[in-house]
Amino acid sequence: MKPTPESVDASLAGPPTRLRGQGHDQIVIAKQGGWALHSKVLAGYLEVVDQWEDNALLGVL
Q1: Is-contact 29 46, C-beta < 8 A?
Q2: pLDDT reported for residue 40
Q3: How many Cβ atoms from other residues are within 10 Å of residue 46's Cβ?
Q4: Smallest Cα–Cα separation from 26: which of 58, 6, 49?
Q5: Rounded to an integer, what distance in angstroms lies between the CA atom of residue 48 and that of residue 61?
Q6: Are 35 and 45 in contact (CB under 8 A)?
Q7: Of 19, 20, 54, 61, most Cβ neighbours within 10 A?
Q8: Residue 42: count of CB within 10 angstroms of its CB
């Protein structure tokens, strides 16, 4: 069975987003994960995590 693009993307995004959720820096994640230091794809994955951390309504709802 051939993997779908969605399943491949999820398997790539999982480890860095989990590390970001634990508070690790993007540069450290990139270096240890083999990503380019300023990877736009990695930044996109981490943006999903950051939007919840930087949410102005956090704790209000």
Answers
A1: yes
A2: 92
A3: 22
A4: 49
A5: 19
A6: no
A7: 20
A8: 21
- Specify whether the CB–CB gap between 46 and 27 falls below 8 A: no
- Least reliable range by pLDDT among 4-8, 9-13, 55-59: 4-8
pLDDT tens digits, 23-56: 899 999 999 989 999 999 999 888 888 777 766 7
What tokens appear for 60 in the block? 């209000």
3-state secondary structure of 57: coil
Torsion angle (degrees, nearest 10) of CA 58, 39, 18, 45 = 50
CA-to-CA separations, 35 to 17, 52, 58, in angstroms, rounded: 13, 23, 30
**Cα angle 23-10-19, degrees, rounded to a multiple of 5:** 15
| Residue type for position 10 | A
pTM: 0.67
